[in-house]
Amino acid sequence: MRNDSALASEILSLTGGPANVTAVAHCLTRLRLTVADPDAVDGDALGALPGVLGVIGKGGTALQVVLGPGVVEGVTAEVEKQTRAAASGPTKPSGPAKPTAPGRPAGPAGLRRVANVFVPLIPALIGCGVLAGLNGLLVNAGWLPGLTPALTAIASGFMALIAVFVGYQAAKEFGGTPILGGAVAAVVVHPGVEKVTAFGVHLSPGQGGVLGALAAALLATRVEKWCRGRLPGALDVLVTPTVTVLVAGLATLYGLMYAAGVVATAIGTGANWLLTTTGAFAGLLLGGLFLPLVMLGLHQALIPIHTTLIEQQGYTVLLPLLAMAGAGQVGGALAVYVRLRHDTALRTTIRSALPAGLLGVGEPLIYGVSLPLGRPFATACAGGAAGGAFVGFFAMLGTKVGATAIGPSGWALFPLLTGNRGPAVAAAVYGGGLLTGYTVGFAATYAFGLRRVAGVETGQVETRARETA
To answer: pTM of this prediction?
Structure first.
C-alpha cells in the first residue's frame, strides 16, 4: 500500500527539510518545490527514492520531482501539511539566512511562471472538454434532446469565463491581489465592451481571450505594487484597488484587448496555415521535439496557445500532433522490454509505466527507461516524429484533427477528439498516428536504440554495465 506521508517526509528530508521549502505546488505528474538553499538539496538521492521517477532543476531554486498521476496529488498534500506543521512548530531556524545560490532553474523563469498560471485550470478544461465531446455525440445522434441544453451550459460555462480565472491566477502567481487580477480580466468578457471603440473599431466580448486576460492581470499587478509602495495605510485600502482597476481596466479596453485579439487571430491563422501548407513536415517537427520539451518541463508553456485555439475554433489542432511523442515513447519502451530480457528490474519498470504511457503520461517512461539509457530517448523521438507526420499529412489533405480540451493524451485523448469532418474521422486519423508512432518507435529502438556488449543487449555501457557481469 502506498504511503504518501512517508514519501513526503523522505522528499523533504532530501530537500533540506521543511524549513528550506518556500513554496509547494503540483501539476498532473510533478511536485514543484521552491527551495531557499539549493545546496541543501541532495538531487541524486532524491531521484533514487522509490516512487520518484525523476528530478528536474537540480542545483536551482525551482525543483520538480516527477511522481506520476494519481501519486502527485497525495504526496503534495502531505508535503504541504508537513511544511505547515514545521512552520508553526516551536522550533524555528535562528541566525541569518544562508544566501541562496543562483542555480539553474528548470526552464526559462518567464515561461515557467506563465505555465503556473494555467496548470491549475487543466482539471476544469478536461472535465468541460469531455462533457463537450459527449454533448456533441448526443446532439449528432439526436439522443436525449432534453438533456443536451443542460450539458451545453455546463460544458461552456467555464470557457465563457476562463478569462476571469486566468486573471485571478496570474495576479496570484506574480505577487498581486488575485481578486483584483480577476476583476480586471473580467472586463475582457463583459458584454458591455461592445459599446467601446478602440483603434476605430468596436470591441467584442472575449476579444483577445486568455492572452488579453493575462496581459490585463499582469498590468494590474504592476499598478497595484506601484500604489502600495507609495501610499500610507489609511489611503492604501481605498485608493490602491480603485486605481488598480481603473488604470488597468482602461488600458485593457483601449489597448490590450485589441492587441491581444490581433495576436490571438495570428495564432489561429498561423496554426491553420502551418497544417494545411506544411502539415507533414510540421507534424514531424512537433511530434519529434515534444519529448525534450516534456523532459525540461517547457510543454506547459504551450497551454496559452492551446487555450487560444480552443476559444477560437472549438479545438486545438496542435495537441494531437504533440501527443504522437508519447506513442513513440511507448513503442521504444516495448522494444527495450523485448531486447533486454535479462534485466528484470528494467522490465518491471516498463510494465508499471506502460499503462501511464498508453494514457499519454510520458514522464514515467522518460525518467525510468529511455532517458537513462540514452539512445532509446532519441529513437522514441523518431517514433513521435513519424506519428506527427502521419496526422499532419491528413491535415494537408483537408482533414483536421483537434482536441476540445488539453491535459489528456494517448488513448485518453479519444473522448476529446473532433475536427472539421467529425469526431469519427478525427479518431480514425489520430488512431492511425498512434499506430505509426508505436511502430516506428519500436522499430527504431529495436534496430538502433541499444548496443551489444559481450553478447548481451545493453543501452549505454556506462549505465547498463551490470548486464555484462
So the answer is: 0.79
